[in-house]
User: What shape does this take?
Amino acid sequence: MSKVPREKKEPSLLISLIPVAVTVILLGITILVYDGEVHIPILMGAIVAAAIAVFGLGFTWKEIEDGIVDSIGSTMQAILILGIIGILIGTWIAGGIVPSMIYYGLQILSPSFFLAASVLLCSVVSLATGSSWTTAGTVGIALIGIAQGLGISTPLAAGAIISGAYFGDKISPLSDTTNLAPAMAGSSLFDHIKHMLYTTSVSYGITLVIFIIIGLQYRGMELDAHEIISINEAISSIYTISPLFLLVPVIVIVMVALKIPAIPGLIVGCILGAICAVFQGTDFGTIVDIANNGTVAETGHAVVDELLTNGGLQSMMWTISLIMCALTFGGVLEKTGMMAAIANRLLVFAKSTGSLILVTAVTCLFVNTLCGDQYLALALPGKMYKDTFRERGLAPRNLSRILEDSGTVTSALIPWNTCGATMSTFLGVPTLSYMGYAFFNILSPIVSVIFAYLGISIMTLEEDPASEQYVRPMKLKKSPKELEEYIVNYQKTHSANA
Assistant: This one.
């Protein structure tokens, strides 16, 4: 006899919130009371969610396991990139590439313009590569070293690096998240990018102004020339420094800009770093060990030794294991419908266009926090709200923009999120320390929601040239009253036609 499938129950809001509450409580106790790691509390939350699903909702363990595997599998490319970047960091330090960047950067950058320059430099690199991770793991590490030499707060420097890196990532057509957001919302890539520029340019402009103002406090500051000289002497004591080594990151950036896939491009970067390490007098066996375990600098200078003892595949394992735990939790919540139950409840508050955008932003932040991954923070709300936006006569690019404005950028602000953990690992600065200085990441969802409530750059289906309902040129400044009148009329017409 064949087995009769178990009847599944829809999870209620209360049931869906149980694993969330358990996870939050366990995280709070672990972090605040015991100063412990976040991995096991998140995994315990996943166990609670799975138990509820199996014993209370009628799911089989096989279905739960499939959800976990699908969740992890959807971000496997990012996990592979993370491991490769660990190797890249190790070989670039051993090859004198990162040391050369720090050496010359200390001679060129001044304290008063360092923060704004960091934002601009990381923006350009991230725009060219389409990757905030690659930017933070290469140029970002060098900038942290320069900040230490100039006497600038490393959390402040990390905030500038992350702000620039996420701006470039967000508007680069090479970025995976920039491609994923319109795919989930139903808009095209370049329509999505153009629509993002309205809100992104404002957030970026404010961010630059803030960092310029903060940088003014360093104007006229007496540089500790002795410390800078000692750092450069310590670096040059164990590495051959040459501007030729700076060609390696340029080559990698150009390769990615020419649309060579990220993983092969980064592998070439690792190989070039290994070749440079040979010129530093490093033998093959040591290079292999560095690729796996990272470099250990022994100059006798505490700052330099701490900075240049970094990298290697194994250095990424803490972060990768955290990602696996977070994705396990997120996979269970998604597969069982608990995440959808919570998000659908939020739609009750989405009465106006502004509140719909706000609810979408809150959902993205919610998924980033609970599921620990920016891809899920784009995919889940995108799937959940796609029909709602269309039913209200709003162009898909409105949804894709808020997905990026809130889902992509806020991921770096959460310690156990894939991005927050990665940025902290690369830059050596705790997420909670740099969080308050990542101004672009903080401002992006706020500006986007304000624009929605004011009716600025909200495009209707009738104003969208890509829509079948397109009837007139775009008018991207409407009062909230005009927007709501349009939505009421659109829904009446749409219902009548249906």
Observations:
- The chain has a mean pLDDT of 84.
- Residues 83 and 316 are 6 Å apart (CA to CA).
- The two ends are 45 Å apart (CA to CA).
